[in-house]
Amino acid sequence: MDSLVNSVIALMPIHPEFTASIFLGRKHVEFRKIAFSKKPDAILVYSTRPTSKVVGLFFVNELDVDSPESLWNKYGSIGGIDIDRFLDYYSQSNLGLAITIRKTIEFGSPMTLREFGIENYTPQNYIYIKYKILQDNLNPFLLNDIETTLYKHHSRTGS
Predict the structure, then answer these.
(1) DSSP tag of 141
(2) How far is CA 156 from CA 4, 6, 11, 13, 142, in A?
(3) pLDDT at 159
(4) What's the number of CA atoms in the CB half-sphere (13 Å) around residue 94?
(5) 144 domain residue, yes or no
(6) Confidence bin at 3 (pLDDT 50/70/90)
(7) Residue 38 — φ and ψ, nearest 5°?
(8) CA atoms of 124 and 114, how far apart (whole Å)
(9) Is 91 within a domain?
(10) β-strands 96-111, 53-66: how paired?
(11) What pLDDT, in 10s, does the model give residues 80-121?
(12) Could you tell me the end-to-end alpha-carbon distance of the chain, in angstroms, rounded to an integer?
């Protein structure tokens, strides 16, 4: 599984109400205004205030860049957000990003950014992190689940 070192992992801040919905299986799409420069294999989820901790991870199925109206038509029923809040979020945007969620792994014990060795980061949008951060900071059982999922994905996609 050494090839997993090249997996693209992004750390992304998400409001606590939405992180709860993601890990309860009620929210299957995360909406964003800014597209990624590289498609992530997985998103490390930082739940914003008042939680202010990394609470889990989800694997990315697809990225879809489109108009907010089209994104709502495609994903509104599984996006875990009401139409008014969605339209308010995209009120100044012509394009949006839908990140469809393939699988989630919630951490039993949320961790601070410092526990991940991440310093001087004020969560605003996303940052890419090295896979080694996961290797160095997660317990072996979680890491094994993550590696197994990434390995299966890389085997299917050839990446």
Answers:
(1) H
(2) 14, 16, 24, 29, 22
(3) 63
(4) 0
(5) no
(6) low
(7) -135, 140
(8) 17
(9) yes
(10) antiparallel
(11) 999 999 999 999 999 999 999 999 999 999 999 999 888 887
(12) 13
How far, in Å, CA of 90 to CA of 87, rounded?
Answer: 5
The residues near 71 (Cβ < 8 Å, ≥ 6 apart) are 31, 64, 96, 97, 98
Residue whose tokens read 């879809």: 64
CATH of the domain at 102: 2.30.130.30
Give the Cα separation of 151 and 15 in Å (integer): 29
Output the average pLDDT for the chain. Answer: 92
pLDDT digits (tens, 9 = 90+) for 34-70: 999 999 999 999 999 999 999 999 999 999 999 999 9
Q: Is the pLDDT of residue 10 over 80?
A: yes
What residues make up the domain containing 79? 9-130
- Structural domain contains residue 138: no
| 157 assigned to some structural domain | no
* Count of domains forming the chain: 1
Give CA separation, 46 vs 14, 52, 58, 114, in Å.
6, 7, 11, 12
Identify the DSSP state of 77. G
Pair of tokens at residue 117: 């060795």
Residue 114's DSSP bridge partners are none
